[in-house]
Amino acid sequence: MNEYENKWEDRINALMDGELSATEAELLKAEAADDHDLARAIIEAYQLQQLMDAVHVERAPDSLRKRLRAIPREHRSVPRFSLFQPRWALALAVIPLVVIVVSLMRPDTPSASEIAQARQDIALAFAYIDKAKVITGREIESSVGQTMADAVTDSVNRVIKSPNLTSKENKA
């Protein structure tokens, strides 16, 4: 198909889709009066549109529809490991409950050495949390950029510095 035919095909498609203004449509039809091939192409397009409008959509058989619906399940990608999957979220929620139950089952008070060890463990945990915070902060800055971090920091600072108190704070 050459460039001349492509140009007419685009204009005929626009005519059939109703995208041409009335003057453009009349101009195309006037050109078709002089060009036999263009007139034939417009008539064929109208006939094709009428035939397509006459086609009735039939409902697919239930067995075919069932097989078509099964295709996405068959080609589903293998899920990656994520702590936010329901089974892991449930497991993570159970951990604090187990810790609480175990601590409640122990009636004796901890010794001084156990308290010192717990303080060291908490200090170590906070050190890990601080380290994770720094790494996560760097990751966020590299992913989102400094602009987003500034916007969040500014809005948080405005809320913190705001002299307006809530009604509960006024009552106290």
Q: What's the helix and strand layout?
A:
Elements: H1 3-17, H2 22-34, H3 36-54, H4 62-74, H5 86-105, H6 112-144, H7 146-161, H8 167-171
| Overall body shape | elongated
Main sheet attributes: strand count, strand direction, barrel closure: none
Q: Low-confidence runs (pLDDT<50, min 5 residues)?
A: none
Order of helices and strands: HHHHHHHH
Which features does this protein show?
172 residues, mainly alpha
Task: Please give a structural write-up.
The protein is 78% helix and 0% strand. It has 172 residues and is an all-alpha fold. Among the domains are: 3-54; 111-163. α2 crosses α3. The longest helix is centred in the last third of the chain and has 33 residues, at 112-144. It is elongated. The termini are far apart. The model has no long low-confidence stretch (mean pLDDT 77).
What is this entry, summarized?
The protein is mainly α and 172 residues long.
